[in-house]
Recover the amino acids of this structure.
């Protein structure tokens, strides 16, 4: 029996070869009708034998293109129309915009083969692309995803490219960024004075390799913005980049030719290998096996951020020299957003880069490289950006109102929500800088446009001083604004991801967050559901002398922690402002109260003499963790003290006004006592981590007895610490808890916006 079906497919179904896939499927099943893109997704009308139609639908559901993500398929039977053939119709704009845009991805194997084939017309062409790979999100100006709505619109296809584009059996059928050396974008090499040196690809490649050999720093335009590139094995070059970039400590990412090269000097697990080779090509944090790169790439740390080539230019560069290891770090000054426009790059990077490699295709949406670490073979995001954005989070229920969530001020990602999806933006960075704030505002406008968002509800953090609080207020006008407590948002984000509806014991550990009592929180143990929370436990408060200044000058935090315990006289005597800070503490001048575990890590690192002043956020905790990781063979004395402390772990806990308090003072007294007894810095660092793990576990056991809740949620930037996360995870699992933490979204403040959305949806 002949039937007609009208099919609506929603999800990431544009720019991924979906229409060509449907076209070939229809021909294979001898089905008539059409397929087209619109601003809601893909519409298919098919007529044919009922069995053939069912087979078509089965393959549609199970054999779709690799870059596609299907959200839902709706099928309706309709009266016959009598189609004569099967065609791809011209895209159309409908009343709604609900389609999704695919992320940028690594060059596929077929394109890679053509890139190095001398007989192929795209041989050595640095913008080779097909249906299954290349730039997508970074070049889209609007939807539907057609060439005229991308930054490829100005490049008119030559006859040969047009023939491929119109051939349903060709791999480049309806590939919007398709191009060749005749009609596509071109590469250019400039010096830092903007003098054009070459526009020939082979000459540029050879020049770049020579510059790297000479120890020069080159700004190279990638899919989502500029990288700063240099030889990762030369100390003097890496140090010079640090000096110019004003980045004394924060590690640089590196790029190597292939997985075999990486395995020469790095430990790589199966999951880490899978991530490195994935189409998303994130930076993966890997433990060093032997010292090959400069010690200044990741000063004092044993993990390196590593990625493999993903653009044609990367592949071409390493094809000419497979042995080199390159620093491949974001093109910016430390903590500012990545440069992605040529004029901006020439201006902002002129004192960093010696040369510039760029091209004449506009980057519409910038994105940094995503960053992931793996723990117990589970990937955990530090930064979610290129390769993963804007893949949507699908909701169970359709929203009645559209939502905008501003996120936090650090590690910012905002979120939009409408119908049945939430989309987190790419990583935007720390919003203390005006240049980052401008990028934030521009990116919000772009998302509103391409996803046709007109929010009725606006959500922000409770912190009155956040930039995101102010901008949400401006955007909202007279529309509804909802404020969500920072650490509650952390917990809700995990509940959203793992579809948890019932109350949980939520542990939100980070550097700071505005509390409901007006103090700075950051060591919160909550009983929470998606709408409300009760603060059950936290570390005891301590003053931050100088407020924000203490976050950089961490010796101030150390002095404050010591002052509360009475041990301060033996420490920090050489610091210029020591007595002024002591006066501040005694008279409570500019000393906001904090219970943040991140700040406690800062203070302990300074007390142990590991670091006194930091250049970037989380520098002190990273260095403290590294000392603990280096304690691989503890002494008998260490084991005896550990046993005694664990036996008496309840001594660190008390109950005050209905809340359980972990005594920050007792923790610091223990650290100082061990230091005075001559225990090594490595052993004290490890014991400090273990005390926190044990005392938190003890408290959660108490709460389980009180509430019968067995689901534990972990979230917050402090859980980027492997020892802390792994230790608590293992302790809880061994005791029969169900443990949840972010896997699809960042464990730090990059996931806050998802939690803000989760707070307001029904």
């Amino acid at each position: 029996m002949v039937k007609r079906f009208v099919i609506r497919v929603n999800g990431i179904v544009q720019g991924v070869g979906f229409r060509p896939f449907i076209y070939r499927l229809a021909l294979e099943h001898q089905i008539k009708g059409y397929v087209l893109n619109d601003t809601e997704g893909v519409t298919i009308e098919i007529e044919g034998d009922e069995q053939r139609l069912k087979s078509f639908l089965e393959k549609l559901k199970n054999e779709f293109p690799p870059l596609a993500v299907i959200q839902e398929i709706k099928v309706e039977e309709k009266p016959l129309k009598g189609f004569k053939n099967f065609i791809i119709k011209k895209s159309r704009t409908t009343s709604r915009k609900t389609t999704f845009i695919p992320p940028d991805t690594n060059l596929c194997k077929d394109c890679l083969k053509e890139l190095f084939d001398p007989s192929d017309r795209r041989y050595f062409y640095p913008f080779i692309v097909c249906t299954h790979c290349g730039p997508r999100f970074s070049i889209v100006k609007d939807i539907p995803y057609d060439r005229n709505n991308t930054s490829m619109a100005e490049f008119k296809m030559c006859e040969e490219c047009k023939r491929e584009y119109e051939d349903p059996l060709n791999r480049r059928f309806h590939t919007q960024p398709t191009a060749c050396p005749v009609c596509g974008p071109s590469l250019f090499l400039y010096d830092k004075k903007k003098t054009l040196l070459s526009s020939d690809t082979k000459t540029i490649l050879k020049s770049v390799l020579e510059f790297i050999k000479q120890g020069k720093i080159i700004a190279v335009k990638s899919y989502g913005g500029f990288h700063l590139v240099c030889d990762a094995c030369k100390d003097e070059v890496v140090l010079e980049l640090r000096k110019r970039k004003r980045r004394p400590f924060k590690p640089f990412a590196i790029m190597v030719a292939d997985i075999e090269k990486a395995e020469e000097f790095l430990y790589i697990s199966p999951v880490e290998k899978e991530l490195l080779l994935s189409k998303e090509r994130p930076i993966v944090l890997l433990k060093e096996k032997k010292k090959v790169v400069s010690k200044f790439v990741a000063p004092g740390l044993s993990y390196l951020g590593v990625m493999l080539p993903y653009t044609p230019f990367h592949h071409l560069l390493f094809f000419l020299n497979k042995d080199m290891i390159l620093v491949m770090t974001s093109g910016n000054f430390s903590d500012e957003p990545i440069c992605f426009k040529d004029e901006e790059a020439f201006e902002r990077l002129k004192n960093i880069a010696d040369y510039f490699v760029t091209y004449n295709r506009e980057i519409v949406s910038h994105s940094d490289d995503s960053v992931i670490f793996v723990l117990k073979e589970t990937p955990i995001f530090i930064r979610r950006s290129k390769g993963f954005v804007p893949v949507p989070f699908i909701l169970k229920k359709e929203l009645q109102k559209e939502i905008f969530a501003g996120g936090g001020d650090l590690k910012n990602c905002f979120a939009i929500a409408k119908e049945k999806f939430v989309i987190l933006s790419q990583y935007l960075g720390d919003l203390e800088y005006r240049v980052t704030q401008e990028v934030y505002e521009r990116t919000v406008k772009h998302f509103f446009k391409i996803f046709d968002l007109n929010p009725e509800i606006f959500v922000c953090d409770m912190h009155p001083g956040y930039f995101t609080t102010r901008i949400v207020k401006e955007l909202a006008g007279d529309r509804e604004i909802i404020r969500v407590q920072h650490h509650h948002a952390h917990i809700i984000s995990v509940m959203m991801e793992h579809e948890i509806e019932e109350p949980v014991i939520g542990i939100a550990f980070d550097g700071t967050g505005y509390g409901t009592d007006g103090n700075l929180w950051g060591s919160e143990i909550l009983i929470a559901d998606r709408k409300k929370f009760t603060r059950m436990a936290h570390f005891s408060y301590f003053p931050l002398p100088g407020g924000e200044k203490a976050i950089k000058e961490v010796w101030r935090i150390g002095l404050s922690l010591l002052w509360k315990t009475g041990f301060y006289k033996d420490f920090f005597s050489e610091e210029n402002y020591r007595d002024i800070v002591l006066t501040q503490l005694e008279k409570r001048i500019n000393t906001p109260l904090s219970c943040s575990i991140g700040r406690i890590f800062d203070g302990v690192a300074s007390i142990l003499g590991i670091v006194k002043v930091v250049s970037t956020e989380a520098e002190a905790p990273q260095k403290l963790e590294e000392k603990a990781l280096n304690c691989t063979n503890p002494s008998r004395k260490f084991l005896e003290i550990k046993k005694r402390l664990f036996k008496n772990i309840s001594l660190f806990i008390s109950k005050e006004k209905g809340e359980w308090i972990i005594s920050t003072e007792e923790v610091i007294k223990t650290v100082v006592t061990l230091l005075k007894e001559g225990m090594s810095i490595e052993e004290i660092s490890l014991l400090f981590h273990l005390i926190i793990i044990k005392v938190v576990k003890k408290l959660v056991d108490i709460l389980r007895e009180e509430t019968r809740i067995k689901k534990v949620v972990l979230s917050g930037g402090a859980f980027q610490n492997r020892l802390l996360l792994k230790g608590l995870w293992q302790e809880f699992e061994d005791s029969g808890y169900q443990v949840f933490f972010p896997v699809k979204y960042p464990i730090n403040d990059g996931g806050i916006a998802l939690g803000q959305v989760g707070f307001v949806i029904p």
About this structure: The domain at 2-88 is CATH 3.30.70.100 (Alpha-Beta Plaits). The mean pLDDT is 95. The chain has 23 helices and 31 strands.
